[in-house]
Predict the structure.
Amino acid sequence: MDISARTDYAIRALLALAAAQGTGRASVPSDVLALDQELPKKFLEAILADLRRGGLITSQRGSAGGYRLALAPAEITLGMVVRTVDGPLAEVRGLRPHQTAYAGVAAHLPVVWVALRASLRHVLDEVSLADVLSGDLPDHVRALAAEPDAWAAR
C-alpha cells in the first residue's frame, strides 16, 4: 500500500487539531497547522477542504477563525481519513477488490485482493486519532508492529 502525501498530511493535521482541542483551543488556522507539522500550506488547504466536505472538520472565518474537529478524536478512525482524502482503501485497476474477476491461473486472485482490503480495514478502521495521540494502540496493531520483520524494508 502506498500511503499518499494527502493521507499523511491529513492525519498529521487532524492529530494537531485533536491535540489543540484537548488544550481547549477553539480553532486552529491553516498556517499554524502547516507550520506546526511542516506541511506545504497550499496543499494543506486543499486537504482541509476535503476533510471539511467529508464532515471530519469544521471551519470558522474571522480573527478567531480556523479549523476544529467535527467529531471527537476517538470517533475519527484513520480509515475514515484515508477514504475522505484518497478514496477506497484498496483498488485494483480502478475496481474494488470484490469486483475483480480473472480466468485461468489467476482465478483465485480476487480472494487475495479482498483479504488485503480486510487487513487494511483491520488496522485503519480500528485505530482512532485518540489512539495515535495517546499511543494506546489496539493490541493487534501493536502485535503486527512487533513482528520481527515489520520494520525491515523489503
